[in-house]
Each structure stands twice: as structure tokens, then as C-alpha cells.
Fold:
Amino acid sequence: MNAKKVFSRKATLSLKMSEFEVPPMQDLLVIGRKAPIGPEAVRRMAEALSPEQFTVIKIDHPKVEAVLIRNSLLQMLEKEVLINIVLEEAERLINDTMVIRSELKIEVSVQREVELL
Structure:
């Protein structure tokens, strides 16, 4: 007989946000619509400091123009889920002239249950 398999997957996210400083690179930057540095300049800066490690994602949001995010984080969690959580938390802190940097750690826990025969 085959064993019955039951799967449970959860992701725990921990965000630390602060105003943009030098050095600028952490895990992500949230770029305000009227920020002194725009998405293209942020992309060039990221490429110069950490080639092929970050992606700029344009956002349709009243205060936020784009998010620069570490590619490895996008491989761990769906882009839409991740961006929605980041925006939900950032919009409480950001105005349209700010750039917020954030440390983002994703911890995945997996629990599996099998029926013993």
C-alpha cells in the first residue's frame, strides 16, 4: 500500500526598514515617486556595486515608483506576494520623496506528515 502524504508549507518574513543611507545596498530599496534618485539610477548603482544581483520592479502606487530587490529573494517567494507585503509595510513610513532601504530575511519552514503502514 502507498503511504498518504500531507504537506504544510509556511513562510515567515522579517523586515527591517530605515531611511536610505550610504552604503546603500541591503536587500531592497523602496523608491518614492519624487525621490532624488530614480529607478534607473538605482539600477545602475546596483549593477556597479553588485552586478546581476538585483532587479528593479516598477510599481503602480501613489507614493512608490519602484522597488529594487535582491534576485535571490525573488527566487524564494513569488514576486507579487513579496512586493505586496513590502508595500503594505513601507506605505506607512514612506512619503513620495523618500528612498527606504530594508533588510529582508525569508525563513521557510516545511512540515510533512506521512501515514505509517
